[in-house]
Amino acid sequence: MASIIHNVLNPWSASKIPSLAGKVAVVTGGNEGIAAAFITELFKHDIAKVIIASNDTARHADAVKHFSKEVGTDVSSKVSLEPLLLPPENPC
Questions:
Q1: Which helix (H) or strand (E) holds 53?
Q2: Which pLDDT belongs to residue 55?
Q3: In the chain, what are the domains?
Q4: How confident is the model at residue 45 (pLDDT cuts 50, 70, 90)?
């Protein structure tokens, strides 16, 4: 009960994220949607590097431009694209 009251009185917000300097995040599906919004917040909190697991290099390039615009600085050196283990034409 105490934790419920605490959460109601102190709701979570992105402003509560501590500095992420020196940290690395691996995000799947980071090219769009909720994952892209999450990555934007990571950059706003000084993440050192984000690895996006994706098979779509064109969408990856668009995402990097989007993050740079949202954050207000070039983040291309902080983002790398790693291919997923399975090509999209070979689902599990």
A1: strand 49-53
A2: 76
A3: 17-82 (3.40.50.720)
A4: very high
